[in-house]
């Protein structure tokens, strides 16, 4: 790569890139990567990375900031999806703007420290909670802009057809500035009507659509086929994402191939939510408890973009969580039998390049011209991320350092 003519604003020296041998210097000019080779450019500031790995910023493609961190006020006994939806709906009645905003900030702070530079958050909109979540989070989107790009998805968790008034509220949410529309057909009395309404709003407002879909141990719904069909019919290819899709893993392999091919042809991307899916699925199994994950390998092999995302942080859907996407690659390496070096590198793509495509982030990557959203890891190779959960020593957003971390251990026993 040629050296830049002008002096760089920042030079990251002795960096390692995921797909290249040897060390490079990354020159940042303004908010962009200007070069990434053995450059000998002048720079106003230089940081020696000492051979550490650099990846693009992590992309959280599916998280619920509005119902995060509820574990201290809500308790569960059955541990099922139905119970989680029911007790969270009760808790939602006491949500206030300040309450939602405070919990969202705590989660976003964790995400930023862990190297996340873009987030898509579902925000529940229904007659119960009204627009409280969106009112809380619209200013948070601006507040966190120096550290991450936040997309807000106006989301109908409680149904549209069975909860009259929701469609009008979704419309209002999009007018107020929600970035996209989200649906959840399996909770509605008329799932197909629900899907149609979401697409009608998506096309009317010219926004992307993101569904929670087919979240069961058995193929009870398979609404994903209707979603793929409508995506093609409306010309919304590349603008539709589906989350969970655990039911896809419950049909015979040749039938899975048919549905996966439909998703690939429709340009529909899949988000796997491993912490929630592993926690809530298989609840009816006494022996040989199922894992309840979408068939990640099969989807990737067919060219369907697959992302791993947090979904919920410490609430009835997922009692644990630190908003660390690297942890999800560790989890899925084990849970989805993806342990070879190539598999581990593919898992790093599920928290970087694939979700970046789903969020349609412009100029994402490590080549010159890309936005300098970067993470520096305490390791040398991409496969070390799932394998060892390395510390993140430096995070950059649009060319500016947002996080510097030091980790000091003194081994006194020696
Ligand atoms: Zn979700």
Number of domains: 2
The backbone outline, from C-alpha atoms, is: globular
User: Uncertain spans, ≥5 residues at pLDDT below 50?
Assistant: 1-5
How many runs of DSSP E, i.e. beta strands? 16
Kindly state the percentage of residues in helix: 25-40%
Q: What are the secondary-structure elements, in order, as H or E? A: EEEEEEHHEHEHEHEHEHEHHEHHHEHEE
Q: Strand arrangement, largest sheet?
A: 6-7-8-9-10-11-12-13
CATH names the topology of the largest domain as TIM Barrel
Top CATH class of the largest domain: Alpha Beta
Distance between the termini: 46 Å
Question: What ligands can be seen in this structure?
Answer: zinc ion
Fraction in beta strands: 15-25%
User: What name goes with the CATH superfamily of the largest domain?
Assistant: Metal-dependent hydrolases
Estimated structural class: alpha/beta
The biggest sheet, with number of strands, parallel, antiparallel or mixed sense and barrel status, is:
8 strands, parallel
Q: From the 3D coordinates, which CATH architecture of the largest domain would you assign? A: Alpha-Beta Barrel
Please give the radius of gyration in angstroms: 21 Å
Total helices: the number is 13
Features:
414 residues; alpha/beta; Urease, subunit C, domain 1; TIM Barrel; 2 domains; 16 strands; disordered N terminus; binds zinc ion
